[in-house]
Amino acid sequence: MSRGSLYRFSVFVLVAAACVILATPSLADSQARIVRLSDVQGSVQVDKNTGLGFENAFLNLPITQGVKLKTRAGGRAEVEFEDGSSMRLAPGATVEFSTLGLNDSGKRISVVNLVEGMAYVNWLGAAGDQFTLNFSREKIALDHAAHFRVDTSAEVANLAVFKGEVEAEGPAGTVSVEKRKTATFDVADNDKYTLANKIAEAPLDSWDKDATAYHDEYAKRGSSPYGYGASDLGYYGSYTNVPGYGLMWQPYFTGAGWDPFMDGAWAFYPGFGYMFVSAYPWGWMPYYYGNWMYVPGFGWMWQPGYWNTWNPIPRYTGPTTVHVHALTPPTGTIKTVAVGRGPTVSTAASSRFTLNSGSAGLGIARGSLGNLRRLNSQVARNGFAAVHPAPQFASTSGHASGGSVSHASTAGSSTGSSTSHVSAAGGHASGGGGVVHH
């Protein structure tokens, strides 16, 4: 072989190897699974096994096998699994997703280690799926629905069951904990346990309860083989049968000039490469399944489908005359790269802000405003509306109004001022923590 041929062959081998390393696995053909970081409030950090250690986490980040998640003081997080099951982390918690895979029959296997702190689990018990939670020296293995709370420290661990029956296996044997009962494990005494016929209320029990009610309420309005993200699609937008296109979904408050890829980030994962992460609170399923289409008279809409293939780069179809932010993964770095206004972290919402046409839900906390469909009509007519949001999940926790709208303000506020109010409420975290601006 000549020196030139040898050089070309070497280059070919190196390029091929790089493609294998960075290739994104098709989930239809592999054992890999990806779940969703579905809520981020305050300081939350993630270790994606990139070698960068813990970095700032944000809404809609994919969670893959081996990822670690940590909530700081005042931070909270929620993770959604494919069937709509959820895990919520209180401040000061650390978890590791040691296994996110499939067994030989294609059923999901999830193993999560609660290293420290408190976690709420609402496992829906999809047929054949298995969920294991390790805490202290105990192991919970579920193949059925259950809703429970676990907290662990160096001295003591507690398991409180809200729904179903949960067995914990450890050094002192196996204990079965029924609904409305609590098991307490003495870490210093080989995890010996005691049972109580009650549950001591924890400060974040109401958050967990309201989050569960939110998912139960709005997930019913969608239709897909997956449950994660379905509740946010039901709250932040609506489905329409469009002649010639079929069933399409569109977020509220889009407006002219909005495109689905203008705000978000590129996040790198070893073995998967870069994935696009949307900044919008509903931005999960429409970016990894189906296809975005520009529909004349409607604007950008999402067409459900392509359920057997995970798309790290969203699909879209649109005329060349319509502007859309280029979906070009970064090169030369493994740091998170912000797009537009960058990724989103929830902060304390303003008691009043102006909702713009084109915001597509940014700045609206889950359940903080009731009847977004009516609000959408008002914003479509006037271009904006002044709103007074309630706390997160208020529309599912007994406050039917879920916030209010100031009708008198819709005619007087300027578009410029309303933009600043929405940005303050949305809490875009586009700097720090290894985020690079494009």
Quickly list its features.
single chain; 438 residues; alpha+beta; Jelly Rolls; 6 helices; globular; disordered N terminus
Number of discrete domains: 3
Radius of gyration: 23 Å
- CATH topology value of the largest domain: Jelly Rolls
Low-confidence stretches: 1-29, 397-402, 405-433
CATH class of the largest domain: Mainly Beta
Instruction: Give the N-to-C terminal Cα separation.
Output: 44 Å
Q: State which percent range the strand residues make up.
A: 35-45%
The total count of strands amounts to 29
Into which percent range does the helicity of residues fall?
A: 10-25%
User: How does the major sheet shape up?
Assistant: 17 strands, mixed
Mean pLDDT: 85
Q: Helical stretch count? A: 6
Structural class: alpha+beta
**CA-based shape:** globular
Give me the CATH architecture of the largest domain, please: Sandwich
